[in-house]
Amino acid sequence: MTKFLAIQLHTDRLQLRLPRLALADPILRFFETEKQFLSPWSPTLPPTFYTRAFQLNKIKTEQKLLREKKSLRFWIFALEDTQQQSILGQIHFSNIVWGGFRSCYLGYSMAESVNGRGLMTEALSAAITYIFNHWHLHRIEANIMPRNLASIRVVKKLDFANEGRSIKYLKINGQWEDHDHYVLRNLALE
Q: Which residues pair with 41 in a beta bridge?
């Protein structure tokens, strides 16, 4: 686990960190602060989600999944935030499947206060480079609601290709929503 917990990525403006128990309070603050902003794009969450105990358990689960190479989440901080107290966003590579598939799902969210500044594109570029070069995944799949134009702009900047629409794909904010299926392939493995 020590090897995995040591992963840190840096860009010109950002640092990307793995979940640690010490981040429970900043993670909880992020979700409490961004609850209204993120709700149109998120599944309905139980009230317990917004508790420190829930976030601590979630971090432990994510650390276990990281050790098993089934999931990789990065929390995004400003480069100058050396104490990692104010989360700007998060990136999650989940449901990692190995064997002949070597694929995962991608989820991400950004704080409203820094939305539209290119930070998510910058963070995703670093995280994708890492997971392609070090984990050697072949495909990253991002499923995005067609009306989430900001998110679509991000994946298009990163050269994700739209492979079609899935009707009533996910239940988001209490409604079954269509999603467009965007994919980025690791061409170095082809």
A: none
Q: Sorting pLDDT into bands at 50, 70 and 90, what band is 1? A: very low
| DSSP for residue 49 | G
What separation, in Å, do the N-terminal and C-terminal C-alpha atoms of the chain show? Answer: 30
Cα-based distances in Å from 61 to 68, 72, 110: 11, 11, 22
Model confidence, pTM: 0.93
pLDDT digits (tens, 9 = 90+) for 95-122: 999 999 999 999 999 999 999 999 999 9
Phi (first) and psi of residue 75, to 5 degrees = -100, 135
Q: Which positions ≥6 away from 90 have C-beta within 8 Å?
A: 30, 73, 74, 75, 76, 108, 109
For residues 150 and 121, give the distance between their C-alpha atoms in angstroms, rounded to a whole number.
11
Q: What is the CA radius of gyration of the chain?
A: 16
